[in-house]
Amino acid sequence: MKIGILGSGTVAQTLGAGLIKLGYNVKLGTRDPGKLDEWFDKVSGRGTVGSFEDAAAFGEMVFNCTAGMHSIEALRSARAENLAGKILVDVANPLDFSSGMPPTLSVSNTDSLGEQIQRTFPEARVVKTLNTVNASVMINPAALPGKHTVFVSGNDADAKAQVTE
Q1: Does 93 have pLDDT greater than 90?
Q2: Cys-Cys with 113: which of 51, 94, 130, 150 at CB 3.0–4.6 Å?
Q3: Alpha-carbon distance 63 to 1, whole Å?
Q4: What is the reported pLDDT for 38?
């Protein structure tokens, strides 16, 4: 399966490397592809890098690993037609650092980033998950002993089942 990942930070790079190790074809999308030269070298050239639009067009499934405050803008750059009909796994958190640390949430209580993404991209099959765990746990849940539960939210039961698998 081909997976497009939007973002260039730790979460995007960690998920990308982990998915490549599992045998997936991965393209990371960013505003500045040159920024990911080191990641590309780390994954032995098995992943590719491009724009948000490139990654969304490439992926049969797309992960949103952008900064939550800028997710809608990044997804617009990826283009709605590149997301239509695809599962869009949203792992972003809408953290607002404008007043320093600790951050606050830019969306809360009566709305969520996942809901905003679904409203903005109604043809995408949005699944919100993994945003409550560290990136290293996302790719290696066995690092934490015991049995665990991870939230998987969205309106599309089939999309949630595929993401869970």
Answers
A1: yes
A2: 94
A3: 13
A4: 77
Q: 67: which residues sit within 8 A by CB, 6+ positions away?
A: 7, 9, 92, 95
d(CA 25, CA 153): 25
User: Which residues on adjacent β-strands are paired with residue 128?
Assistant: 90, 153
> Band of the pLDDT at 64, cuts 50, 70, 90?
very high
DSSP 101: S
Query: Whole-model pTM?
Result: 0.93
Q: Which residues on adjacent β-strands are paired with residue 95?
A: 105
| Dihedral angle computed from the Cα positions of residues 121, 124, 129 and 130, in that order, rounded to the nearest 10 degrees | -90
Tokens for 75, please give them: 């997804």
**What pLDDT was estimated at residue 82?**
98
